[in-house]
Amino acid sequence: MKIFKNATEALECVKSNDTIMVGGFGLIGAPLTLIDGLVEKDIDNLTIISNNLGERGKGLGILLQQKKIKKAIGSYFTSNRDVGAAYQRGEIEIELLPQGTLAEAIRAGGAGIGGFYTKTSAGTDLAKGKETKIIDGEEYILEKPLKADVSIIRAHKADTLGNLIYYKTAQNFNPLMATSAKYVIAEVDEIVEVGQLSSEEITTPHLFIDGVTIAKKLLTKDGVIEID
Questions:
Q1: Rg (CA), the chain
Q2: Are 162 and 212 in contact (CB under 8 A)?
Q3: Which of 13, 29, 100, 228 shows the smallest number of beta carbons within 10 Å?
Q4: Which of 220, 212, 197 lies closest to 9, judged by CA?
């Protein structure tokens, strides 16, 4: 595990055409510093797996405006009106998954599960083209796991080994995404020495984490602020 000085250094591994998982629900729990790093990086044709694509002009919404995203896989794209407009113009491909299905598909990717059956979306347009199976007289849809080249996630604290703890609901998709990519980068508020995190509060063990950097942006009730 490596501690990076900044987002630019942390994201050196990211390249065009990568599939990237991005934690967060809206802007809450989103790795805003690392997203800014992607904004400044000369890359395109990205596939983004995230609950949503930020908000208009914020978070992943900036990447969308830059036309760096070729495909988005998620569940709540209406939080950013630019997504629908880009889709209508043919600038982005959308794969819509129910939120629980999205979370389970990410978990399955990290757990080495080849797929799972769920009743959610059965009989709807979201099930079109997918394998179905009747189980106990009810229709189930086969959903495949989601994996990524890189996950960028947000945590509250890390120790120097890379063990992570999260802050309340900012945890959201981040722990799942830490298990489901070839390379995982976490931005955190603070890095402490090994032993300063209680083993009972560690959510993501260090074996999943490849890099850590300090967050330079913080979401507050008044909006996103810069951190010195």
A1: 18
A2: yes
A3: 228
A4: 212
Determine the pLDDT at residue 226: 76
pLDDT tens per residue across span 100-124: 999 999 999 999 999 999 999 999 9
Return the residue matching tokens 């959610």. 120
The reported pTM is: 0.95
Say how far apart CA 209 and CA 164 lie, in whole Å: 9
Report the pLDDT value the prediction gives residue 71, as an integer from 0 to 100.
Answer: 98
- Size of the chain, expressed as the number of residues it contains: 228
Q: Mention every residue, 6+ apart, whose C-beta is less than 8 A from residue 190.
A: 156, 157, 158, 214
CA gap 84, 218 in Å, rounded: 27
What tokens appear for 69 in the block? 């995203």
- Phi, psi angles (nearest 5°) of residue 127: -90, -5
CB 171 within 8 Å of CB 29: yes
- Phi, psi values for residue 112, rounded to 5°: 75, 25
Bridge pairing between strands 181-188 and 211-214: parallel
pLDDT in tens, 35-65: 999 999 999 999 999 999 999 999 999 999 9
200 vs 12: CA distance, rounded Å = 33
pLDDT for residue 144 is more than 80: yes
CB contact at 8 A, 122 and 139: yes
Contacts of 117 by beta carbon, 8 Å cutoff, 6+ apart: 133, 135, 140, 141, 142, 143
Domains, the chain, in order of start with CATH, read 2-226 (3.40.1080.10)
